[in-house]
Amino acid sequence: MSAPEPLGALETAAALRSAELDVLELAERTLESARSIGAETGAFAHLLEDLTREQARAVSERLDDARRRGASQDLAAQWPLLGVPLPIKDLTQIAGAPFEAGSAALAGNIATVTDGVAQRILDAGTLTIGKTTTPEFGMPCYTEPATGAPARTPWDLRRTAGGSSGGAAAAVASGVVPLAHGSDGGGSVRIPAACCGIVGLKPSRGVVSPGPYGSEGMGLVTDGVLARSVRDAAAGLDLIAGPRPGDFTPSQASGRSYLARLDEEAEAPTSLRIAVLREPLAAETEVHPAALRGLERALQVLRGLGHETTEIRAPFTPEDWKSFMPLWTVGAATIPLTEAQEGALLELTRWLRERGRSYSAVELAQAFSSVQSLARRTLEGFAPFDLVITPALAAPPAFPAELQLPEGEADFWAQCAFTPWTSTWNMLGTAALSVPVHREQIDGRELPFGVQLGATRYGDEPLLLAVAARLEAHDPWPLVRAPQHA
């Protein structure tokens, strides 16, 4: 008889409230899993065992107090994910914890502040477990850090877990944790979600504040969540969403949780207009037949649910997409490093920073205008539709050597060919979600293939989550994948 699959995040919280699970035992079991399975998949840059045990003791006291008062169910409203293991990506600071961002330039660095999104996660009473693995400063779509083990998809430990939230995806997909924090500037939540066969959500610009220590910068990056189920992803977004004073693009909070709005949307019998986009956007590249079969699988379910699908052409060319380049490369160039730290950088980061320094202030201002103009035209073209569906990636989870190349520019364009759709939604600023709809045998190994659901309007997270939930209900995916060795 096979072992039961690990509980999801909301299921874990419910089991803790009902005393079916003991939070102290859960903490120890999760840490052991992080030391074993997490090590196999390269999921964690750093384990935070003392912090996790301290958190578990605090949760245990809170649960005991609620039971004494007969108020256990009140916790569900106030602390919906109380006691749930939820690691934080090592691009985000927790005061007193290592913060190396996957770079030898920051080896041994300890954070002195806690970033706002991390504080929200900590304040929710979750168990941090550790900092998940990221590549150097989160720049590439693979996770090969200079400071530790690479992140690998549990579906095939020879292949990348994607990036830059690769460690987070590996931890969730392999069953170590049910939910993880990530961040996304060009697909860094959705790409690893697709590589690892889980759900990855990039919220709309402004939904999650980067404050008080971060800034919107180029407007491309936002924090997000990775989960095995759609409802868990919605619950995770509820933890991290919200504005802070001084936000450049603050969102308009509805006052209702994303989880509640998902449940309402999922019950509505609305027929949606869905645009189907097969053509790559960021590069001229072949799309693997299995990726297209995954798209067809999702479309078959959606049509069966009464939604209208319309094939559309690419709204811009790969040459047009290059207006994104100054924003991405100048962002890399603005990372504050000393001359000594510069010498410790990997080739891709070095190339991106050199390229970013080559642009003048006028050229950067022109790039901002070009990207906004491209976003306006694209969203105007998408306006007749409720959402856009694409393959999540152009190929199966890649072997690292196919992406991490010796020359920085070649490395960058190989990444674009692997991920030709994801960065568009960072430029648009609307939400996007990777859904693990398909599996297929490739060279003797079963591998996951996802689709991307892209919003056409700001604030449409509940709609995307509801569509993903319908796909999940009508064509469920495997929830946990034990690490598959060569």
How would you describe what is shown here?
With 486 residues, the chain is α/β, with parallel strands linked by helices. It has a single domain (9-474), classed as Amidase signature (AS) enzymes, CATH 3.90.1300. The chain contains 18 helices and 11 strands. The protein has an 8-stranded mixed sheet with strand order 4-6-5-10-11-9-7-8, sandwiched between helices. The protein is globular.
List keywords for this structure.
single chain; alpha/beta; Amidase signature (AS) enzymes; eight-stranded mixed sheet; three-stranded mixed sheet; 11 strands; globular
- CATH architecture annotation name: Alpha-Beta Complex
User: Segments where pLDDT lies below 50 for 5+ residues?
Assistant: none
**If you compute it from the alpha carbons, what radius of gyration comes out, rounded to the nearest whole angstrom?**
21 Å
**Average pLDDT level:** 96
When the domains are counted, the total is 1
Major β-sheet, in short? 8 strands, mixed
What is the helix/strand order?
HHEHHEHEHEHEEHHEHEHHHHHEHHEEH
Structural class from helices and strands?
alpha/beta
Reading side by side through the largest sheet, how are the strands ordered?
A: 4-6-5-10-11-9-7-8
> What is the helix content?
40-55%
CATH superfamily: Amidase signature (AS) domain
